[in-house]
Amino acid sequence: MNEAGRARFLVELIKPSHYDDDGYLIQWWRGFVPSSSLSSIYGLALDAQARAVLGDGVDLEIAAHDETNARVPVRSIIRRFKRNLNRGVVLMIGVQTNQFARAVDIARELRAAGIQVAIGGFHVSGCLAMLPEMPPEMKDALALGITLFAGEAEHRLDELLVAAFEDRLPPVYNFMADLPAMDGEPLPFLPIKYVKRYAGAIGCFDAGRGCPFSCSFCTIINVQGRKSRHRSADDIEQLIRAHAAQGVRSFFITDDNFARNRNWEAILDRIIQLKRRDRLKINIIMQVDTMCHKIPNFVEKSVRAGCKKVFIGLESINPDSLKGASKGQNCITEYRRMLQAWKRAKVLTYAGYILGFPSDTPDSIERDIQIIQRELPIDIMEFFMLTPLPGSKDHQEMYLRGERMEADTNKYDAEHAAADHPRMSAAEWQDIYQRAWHLYYSPAHIETLIKRAVASGMRTRRMTSMILYFYGSHAYERVHPLQGGIIRRKPRTQRRPGFPRENPLRFFMRRAREMSATYVPGLWFMWRLERLRRKIENDPASKRYTDVALSPVADDEFGADLELYHATDSARHAADQARTRADAIRQIDSSGDAAA
Q1: Could you read off the pLDDT of 371-409 as tens digits, one per residue?
Q2: What is the DSSP string of 284-308?
Q3: pTM of the full predicted structure?
Q4: Alpha carbons 146 and 78: distance in angstroms, whole number
Q5: Can you spell out the DSSP letters for 51-65?
Q6: Which single residue of 79, 183, 254, 595 has CA 20 to 30 Å from 416?
């Protein structure tokens, strides 16, 4: 009982991280990517708390942990639950496939102490939605007494909390056949003490769920559905006001594709109104598709609403790869128009690029990167290895065909070869993934990116800070930027089961060497990047810079590029030489026009 004589029921929300190849947790002093799932479930739990779903005499006490930016105090949680006679439940939130092993490791300790645990997220939902039987790692979790939750928690969290309060949690909740509406539902929220653990104190929310496309590698369409479900403009205003009241004004809209949210215009209009009427300084990052610029007013209203950065699922420029992945909506002839539209609006563009489609080879990937550098005004590129994620059509088909896939779920992080490739060995595939970052962020292309920023009137500090983070995460921290953060924390005692716990002296000596090998060259790169930025900014010629990627698009311009994929080596070489000469002539003509 608490001081007022009321009963307490503890609700502990944990977003797990995952292990690196040495078995250590990937964790940071400050994280970069906020967890939409954690915010959503916290908001639902707050609503359940306000409605006293367990009765007027029971208080819900809610705590949250994102393990990417804070240590999960398992022993402290066990002690707190023990003092409360284990009245409570621990919910593992938004667990992706690469995080499932870590989630079970945490749950194993909690279950040994008699604490109720449930695991939800894309891995559980994807497997139950797409596979004919439960995979071994999920059966092992059930054997530990862990409850598995598939589907979304709106309208269902009350049921789970009441079952946990009455100590009758079932082994499995499966709500995949009934996806809830979102309009008027409790809103995502995290208190400032949690939000400030993300660099820039950035909040996040999903304005909608579902995607109309049919990409074979995607889990969204099979977990969240292909029908658009969305929040109202009133919901978003309430959400923004609640965050602004605690000083949070930067937001990541986590819709897989905000441009296909049927309510996008009403939402953006309301945010614009808040900025104008209430003078709120709102900054937004959103995810969109490659055809969003064709939606009337979408780019213009996004900018007026405070959009500074957009993430675009470019995936590939190889037409064979796009066709094979059911990515027909990605049209190579529109890429430059779309990117130029965002660049004219002074919005920084991120593009995700997948390596390992069946037609890919190391040579073709290198060629594609060269074409991108020359032809497309993308700012930041991030690379992924094609991974058969549970919940995707690719994974389902490989499973049904009995093809080999990686057994260790920890490696489903898009940085490891989780399946065989028809044209590359695992070593070749891994090697080109590592080299792709260095190929794109070559010294010459970094200089080009900064020059394009100056010529487009964009803030160069924003550009160089993102280059530092995205390239530096891979080159120096050796993690994918989406798993990155500021200053790696590596607790010696939190190592994956099966790995020995290192001697303290040996561990800390090795850790000191690792930090020196990471941060000394990283700081040197940052200094050189800043020196280059100042040099380019101070050069008057930079404002007149132009190249192929910044030039207007001719309707038939990309036809030659498409032919290159199917040409012989000699024909491709000749075509490349011709294009190089044409590019040089165009730059000379542009320079002459500028001088005149």
Answers
A1: 999 999 999 999 999 999 999 999 999 999 999 999 999
A2: EEEEE-TTGGGSTTHHHHHHHTTEE
A3: 0.90
A4: 16
A5: TTTT-TTEEEEEEEE
A6: 254
